[in-house]
Amino acid sequence: MKAENYYFGQRGVEKDFKKGFKLFIESANLGNSEAQYMVGYIYDNGDYIPKNETEAVKWYLKSAKQGYFEAFLALGSSYELGKGIKKDFTEAMKYYVKASKRNSSNGDYNIGRMYEYGLGVQINIEEAKNWYQKAAKSNHFDAKNALKRLGN
Q1: pLDDT digits (tens, 9 = 90+) for 69-128
Q2: How far is CA 11 from CA 8, 25, 119, in A?
Q3: CA 134/CA 51 separation, integer angstroms
Q4: Gap between the Cα atoms of 134 and 100, Å rounded
């Protein structure tokens, strides 16, 4: 994607954040799910533009509607933390599960955390361990540490 080349300064293209962001917006408005996610990410992090978590969620939702798994993770986090949208652990879990179904070890890890700490679900250490083990099979560092911490 051309936008990435400008935004990150890769493939021999000089970094130009403004041009990269403009190209991400154009592509996102044409329905590109990865570009929609990136626009959300840029707003979420305030990278070279003012941080706007509400605008980030808007773009993450557009991307997620098309099945882009990184958007599922971002929305899970937004709902879990109440960033740009009302805190809702049930919605957070829903998006983490969607990410997990796309073979995301981060989705698996986050589901484990939800069970370990009782975020929107009953605390269930065994269920947490199961999700951490699934993530650890993909060499997820935090999942491996969680399993050590829980004595597994």
Answers
A1: 999 999 999 999 999 999 999 999 999 999 999 999 999 999 999 999 999 999 999 999
A2: 9, 20, 42
A3: 34
A4: 10
